[in-house]
Amino acid sequence: MGEASGGSGVGGFLGSVGVGDLCGGTVVEVGRSRALVMLDGFAARPIGVVGTLDASWRVHFADAVAVGQRITAEVTAVDLDQERVWLSMAATENPELWAFLKRFRHGEVLTGTVAAIERFGVFVALDEGPDHPVYPGVGFITYPELSWRRYEDVSEVVAVGQRVACGFLQFDTWNGEARLSLRALQPDPFMVFADSVVAGQRLPGRVTKLVPFGVFAQVADGIEGLIHLRDLGGAPGAAPEDVVQVGDEIAVVVTDVDRERRRVNLARRPATS
């Protein structure tokens, strides 16, 4: 098949390729961010692409691909507009792990044991499936997904050796991981709070932070709202620190709860008014 067939040639070939298919080919060019592959069955030009993070989970990209190398890779995407077939060599390098991770759907509950805590997240050794060829666990939790609530140190939430149940978020094909969430299985305290209050409701608050445009006050466990400077009750032109200090107990009223943006707006009210 050559260029004489024009767009219909590549279009026909791309139409015969689907995500999940295995394709063979020869690497014809290696750049800093990708390798181009001449796919078997379409010799007109290289339309196969292996990204730097799809070559291998074991070795660096430069050591995983070379011009003239024969590869077998799984199709991860077919870009009809750019006439590209995106490939993963890692899928065929670790077929058992790839097949295991592909079967999960968002929201499924996976269980395991915390295997390691790193500065970028938490590794979880899953109860089922193969081990990871590189990392201490196939499951991975980023810090924001550990808890709905603020915490100073990860040790407040998990510890190595702890048993956990997590919600599955997605298959991270770049690292060969199951991205997980602890907080997905916990009630969202913001939504619980939003269901319990209405605009105009008075609440006790504690000032937690001063900012140029107002102050933040905690009104429930893990819930803070903003009191804009105009609603703080100070004299015209007064700065927040002229009116309240961090730690002050104040009376506030709920003016608005924005569920989509997860924001609570408050106004200060005298406790006796």
Query: At the fourth CATH level, what is the homologous superfamily of the largest domain?
Result: Nucleic acid-binding proteins
- What percent of the residues sit in helical stretches (DSSP H or I)? 10-25%
Largest sheet: 5 strands, mixed, barrel
How far apart the termini lie comes to 84 Å
Q: What's the Cα radius of gyration?
A: 27 Å
CATH first level of the largest domain: Mainly Beta
How many strands in all?
Answer: 15
Fold-level CATH name of the largest domain: OB fold (Dihydrolipoamide Acetyltransferase, E2P)
Q: Which stretches are low in confidence, meaning pLDDT under 50 for 5 or more residues running? A: 1-7
Q: What is the string of helix and strand elements? A: HEEEHEEHHEEEEEHEEEHEE
Average predicted local confidence, pLDDT:
91
Which helices and strands appear, and what pairs or packs with what?
Blueprint: H1 6-15, E1 22-30, E2 34-39, E3 48-51, H2 61-64, E4 70-79, E5 84-88, H3 89-93, H4 95-102, E6 109-118, E7 121-126, E8 139-141, E9 163-172, E10 177-181, H5 189-196, E11 202-211, E12 214-220, E13 223-228, H6 240-243, E14 249-258, E15 263-268
Parallel strand pairs: 3-5, 8-10, 13-15
Antiparallel strand pairs: 1-2, 1-4, 2-3, 4-5, 6-7, 6-9, 7-8, 9-10, 11-12, 11-14, 12-13, 14-15
